[in-house]
């Protein structure tokens, strides 16, 4: 599907009716655009969904806050306060927000390093996320600082080896089935990781054992600096599970993502086995902060997607068109999100760096430590 078609399908009108006994509408019945989904070996999710006004406002607030948080990360990196690699999800907010609003705390999400938004939606505070990127004590990795390698009860992320999180996700789903939990695991990876052999090995195991695993390919069109059609002989990622059914989703529409994820969860927990979702999305920035993102695509392409397919603008216009909120209410949300992120930036910068001895914690299970760890030089080392 061309970029122009992706942009067009997100903003064509969809029917919305509000119902309430009071002057303030609460329930919103929505009909998604017919091209929101494309199914493979299964029925497509329903185009009809009902959400409450509060749920729509929560989605909008979450995406706006996430965008602000990533903009702050961008500024902190350019100020050389964040060092090393930094991968932002600006433009892809609908995936994390639509996914989390369709799940419960029992469901698991595992992804790689473009994970700030998922961490926020799973309950991580903005301060803890930014402090983690800054390598400060207040960082989400147990107060040790680091590079977003967080492991919280319901989120597993920060895997730095391309595609390595996918078989781990299948393993988490195996544990859920073994323990009899009515929950699913969502294993995310990008189009750049889609050709990894371990991804297909995970498909095989998940299907053999009918694990409650949803494989989610975030197709943002470029694996680092390589266009999808230059690296993948088959760019229909939702069909690449072969024996696993799949659904392509308009990943720039938070409502379509929400509906598809709810469908996928129901599919897996009902015992039908794994499902593959392809979230067709777009990142506005480069692969990482060291990548300007304009050498392998045009500025016109990026601007076209920003202008015609932005997930925040799309939801905002829907809510305004059908009287769910007022322009003043949206401005208040935007202002509050900016203030919240600005406050978190100052809190994270004020957090001290971790103590040097924290470098040597959580290496071994207590009681199994070796007496000595070699340092950079043979004569250098740490004794426990």
Automatic annotation (TrEMBL):
Q: Which GO terms describe its molecular function?
A: pyruvate dehydrogenase (acetyl-transferring) activity
InterPro entries, from UniProt?
Answer: DH_E1 (IPR001017), PDH_E1_Alpha_Subunit (IPR050642), Pyrv_DH_E1_asu_subgrp-y (IPR017597), THDP-binding (IPR029061)
Q: Does the keyword Magnesium apply?
A: no
Q: What does the entry give for GO biological process? A: pyruvate decarboxylation to acetyl-CoA
Domain named Dehydrogenase E1 component: residues: 62-356
Task: List the cofactors.
Answer: thiamine diphosphate
UniProt superkingdom: Eukaryota
What does the record give as the reaction this protein catalyses? N(6)-[(R)-lipoyl]-L-lysyl-[protein] + pyruvate + H(+) = N(6)-[(R)-S(8)-acetyldihydrolipoyl]-L-lysyl-[protein] + CO2
Report whether Translocase shows up as a keyword of the record: no
Q: Which UniProt keywords apply?
A: Oxidoreductase, Pyruvate, Thiamine pyrophosphate
Tell me the function of this protein: The pyruvate dehydrogenase complex catalyzes the overall conversion of pyruvate to acetyl-CoA and CO(2).
Give the NCBIfam families listed for this entry. Answer: PDH_E1_alph_y (TIGR03182)
Q: What is this protein called?
A: Pyruvate dehydrogenase E1 component subunit alpha
Which species is listed as the source?
A: Actinomortierella ambigua
* Lineage, highest ranks first: Eukaryota, Fungi, Fungi incertae sedis, Mucoromycota, Mortierellomycotina
């Amino acid at each position: 599907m061309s970029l122009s078609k992706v942009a067009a399908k997100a903003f064509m009108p969809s029917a919305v009716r509000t119902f309430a006994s009071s002057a303030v509408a609460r329930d919103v019945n929505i009909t998604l655009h017919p091209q929101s989904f494309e199914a493979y070996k299964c029925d497509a999710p329903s185009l009809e969904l009902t959400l409450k006004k509060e749920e729509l406002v929560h989605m909008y607030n979450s995406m706006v806050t996430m965008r602000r948080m990533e903009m702050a990360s961008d500024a902190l990196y350019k100020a050389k306060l964040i060092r090393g690699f930094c991968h932002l999800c600006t433009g892809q907010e609908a995936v994390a927000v639509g996914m989390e609003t369709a799940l419960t705390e029992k469901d698991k999400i595992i992804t790689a390093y473009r994970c700030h938004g998922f961490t926020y939606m799973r309950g991580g505070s903005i301060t803890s996320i930014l402090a983690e990127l800054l390598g400060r004590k207040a960082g989400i990795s147990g107060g040790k600082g680091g590079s977003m390698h967080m492991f919280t009860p319901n989120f597993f992320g920060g895997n730095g080896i391309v595609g390595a999180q996918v078989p781990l996700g299948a393993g988490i789903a195996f544990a859920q089935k073994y323990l009899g939990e009515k929950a699913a695991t969502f294993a995310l990876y990008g189009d750049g990781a889609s050709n990894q052999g371990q991804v297909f090995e995970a498909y095989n195991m998940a299907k053999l054992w009918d694990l409650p695993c949803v494989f989610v390919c975030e197709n943002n069109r470029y694996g680092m600096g390589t266009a999808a059609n230059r690296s993948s002989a088959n760019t229909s990622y939702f069909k690449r599970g072969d024996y696993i059914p799949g659904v392509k989703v308009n990943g720039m529409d938070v409502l379509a993502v929400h509906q598809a994820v709810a469908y996928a969860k129901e599919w897996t927990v009902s015992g039908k086995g794994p499902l593959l979702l392809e979230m067709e999305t777009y990142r506005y920035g480069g692969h990482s902060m060291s990548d300007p993102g304009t050498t392998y695509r045009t500025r016109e392409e990026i601007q076209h997607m920003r202008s015609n397919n932005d997930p925040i603008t799309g939801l905002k216009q829907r809510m305004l068109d059908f009287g769910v909120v007022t322009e003043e209410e949206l401005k208040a949300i935007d202002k509050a999100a900016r203030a919240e992120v600005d406050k978190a930036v100052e809190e994270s910068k004020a957090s001290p760096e971790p103590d040097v001895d924290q470098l040597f914690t959580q290496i071994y299970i207590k009681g199994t430590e070796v007496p000595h760890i070699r340092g950079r030089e043979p004569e250098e080392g740490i004794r426990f």
